[in-house]
Amino acid sequence: MRRDIFSIVVSAIFCLVFSDFMLSGCSNPNNNNDQEIEKKKTSIRIKNESYSLLMNVHLQDKYFEPTVQNPYGIEGLPGDPGYFSAGDISSTIALTEDTSGYIYFVLYIYTEGGGVRAYPCHTRELVVVNRGEENEFIFTDNTLVVDYANPSNVQTLKNMEAYIKGLE
Q1: For residue range 64-120, what is the model confidence (pLDDT) as tens digits?
Q2: Fewer beta carbons within 10 Å, N or C terminal of the chain?
Q3: In what order do the strands lie in the sheet with 53-59?
Q4: What CA–CA distance (Å, rounded) separates 48 from 143?
Q5: Alpha-carbon gap, residue 35 to 29, rounded angstroms
Q6: Residues 90, 64: contact at Cβ < 8 Å?
Q7: Residue 46 has what pLDDT?
Q8: Which residues of 66-76 are buried (b: 16+ CB within 10 A; e: fewer)?
Q9: pLDDT above 70 coverage of the chain, percent
Q10: How far is CA 47 from the centre of its chain?
Q11: What is the DSSP string of 61-115?
């Protein structure tokens, strides 16, 4: 009988300790990791190191704030306050969740007649931003871009400009 009582007491103590362990969150080692990720900033920053003029740059429905106002009166999409000229420092957008997609933009080309041609494009590479990460995307003359109207037309940013100029 003493053995039975001893077994019951040991079992009860084990159950209490185990349930306290479970309720304290120790059973989920990722619990603290999730809280740390929530505290970190989730963002993507773009930088234009190309010689191209980019306007209306966006990832999904989040638009990057241009670093240069529109001094030449180039008309972009409604509400567009400026553009990303060559060598602009950068622009950052904050995100609240995991995001993936292409970076869409309008490539502006000055024509020989003094006009401007607007050509919508997007990056060839899918951009992925995980929650709690700060990413950066750099446009260079060698960045592969896709012609929005003709998805089979994939070229470097510099070659896409030459292609567009050849359409005149």
Answers
A1: 876 555 545 555 443 444 556 555 556 778 888 888 999 999 888 877 777 778 899
A2: N
A3: 62-63, 53-59, 103-110, 116-123, 144-147, 154-156
A4: 10
A5: 11
A6: no
A7: 87
A8: bbeeeeeebeb
A9: 61
A10: 12
A11: TEEPPPSEE-TT----STT--EEB-TT---EEEE-SS-EEEPEEEEEEEE-TTS-
User: Is 74 in contact with 121 (CB distance < 8 Å)?
Assistant: no
* Residue boundaries of the structural domains of the chain: 2-37, 41-165
140: left (phi over 0), alpha (psi -120 to 50) or beta: beta
Decide the pairing of beta strands 99-101 and 127-129. Answer: antiparallel
Q: In b/e form, how buried is each residue of 133-160, taking b as 16+ CB within 10 angstroms?
A: eebebebeeebebbbbeeeeeebbbbeb
Residue 125 and residue 137: Cα distance in Å, rounded?
10
Q: Answer yes or no: pTM beyond 0.70.
A: no
Closest CA to 135 of 100, 105, 106: 100
Beta carbons of 5 and 12 less than 8 angstroms apart: no
Name which of 86, 97, 79 is nearest 133 in CA terms.
Answer: 97
DSSP count for the chain of H helices, then E strands = 3, 13
The candidate with the shortest Cα–Cα distance to 123, out of 41, 43, 50, 69, is 50
